[in-house]
Amino acid sequence: MLSCAGLLFEGLTWTRLKALHRITRQPVFSSAIWRAAWRSFSKWLGASSSTTARRRRPRWPRPPLSCGRRLNAVLARSDPGQGGWQVARVRTFIDKNLHRTIHTQDLSAEARRTPAHFSRSFKLSFGEPPHAYVVKRRLEKACHLMITGSASLSEIALSVGFSDQAHLCRLFRQAFGQSPANWRREHETQQ
């Protein structure tokens, strides 16, 4: 019997082990593990461990249907995205720290994940990478400050975490297709 990520499985094919590895991100490929899985599968089938017995059978026999169904159920329900508490915690952290530089390492520590795993699961949960989400939140806050306050664009840029006004203007133009000053004038006349 072989255990990986808390799952017990016997005699899975190489393809199924690779699929399980992609989902769980657990190392299941070492030759020692595969040999142990093969021995366990051979015992389970009642075959001897000699090479002649293995040659009579197909090299990688199909696992029983019930084992395949169990694995398919695990593969279908496993979601590598973040849990609800992690999403809420990361959102709160980003909103509280927009005024300063936010690194992926800070966010991953907040979600209690490694930076690589955090980046993948963040993209699955939010639909965009962490940096793009932070920039979007900064632009949303800048829009709110432009409408509600009378601060200059350079003050707004610094208060939401951009390095200077040019940085704000460049990203604002990419997102909205016009300069922040024009956008501000249009929205002042509409109110």
Which key phrases capture this entry?
disordered N terminus; 191 residues; mainly alpha; Arc Repressor Mutant, subunit A; elongated; 2 strands
Secondary-structure topology with pairs:
Blueprint: E1 2-4, E2 7-9, H1 14-24, H2 31-45, H3 51-56, H4 65-77, H5 84-96, H6 104-111, H7 115-126, H8 130-148, H9 153-159, H10 165-176, H11 180-190
Antiparallel strand pairs: 1-2
Descriptive notes:
The protein is mainly alpha-helical. The chain has three domains: 76 residues, no CATH class; 44 residues; 58 residues, Homeodomain-like (Arc Repressor Mutant, subunit A). It contains eleven helices and two strands, in the order ββααααααααααα. A two-stranded antiparallel sheet has the order 1-2. The longest helix is centred in the last third of the chain and has 19 residues. The chain is elongated. The N and C termini lie far apart (69 Å).
